[in-house]
Amino acid sequence: MITRRTALAWGSTVFVLGGVTRTTSANDVSLERAIEESDLIYLTPIRSNGTESRCQAEVWFVADGGDLFVVTDSNTWRAHAPRLGLDRARVWVGDLGTWGDTDGKYRFLPRLEMVATQVRATDVIERVLERFGDKYAMEWVVWGPRWRSGLADGSRVMLRYRPRT
User: Which of 50, 64, 67, 132 is the most exposed place for a label (fewest CB within 10 A)?
Assistant: First the structure.
């Protein structure tokens, strides 16, 4: 069986930047570049007391209109947290491999404080899935149908991460 991580290791040659436009400082430029070039983000929901959840993962993402989108299993904590009002999340942008194998190095990547919401609008879901297909072209042969069927039957959800203001 091909796993998401194995497929990602094959590499994707298509990079998409979908609307992160602020470039007012060197940090913003490095963040913009990271979003454009990275295949992964590392994310964790933020608990009500402000600490990071133990649920941390590297995930595929696409940028669109300044937001970051992920598709995840509906049973994950990152999927449950926004429904419970725990919508804050911390996101690091870059690709260092599996988060558990980074020895915390992902924490030195460009970071965003975000607000998570579940996407339900079918037009947005379709647009974002097309972007995933463009960005992860080789992997999409396997994962595209799985994500589409999972979104249709509720076993997967799409989350939008919007920068906190």
Answer: 50
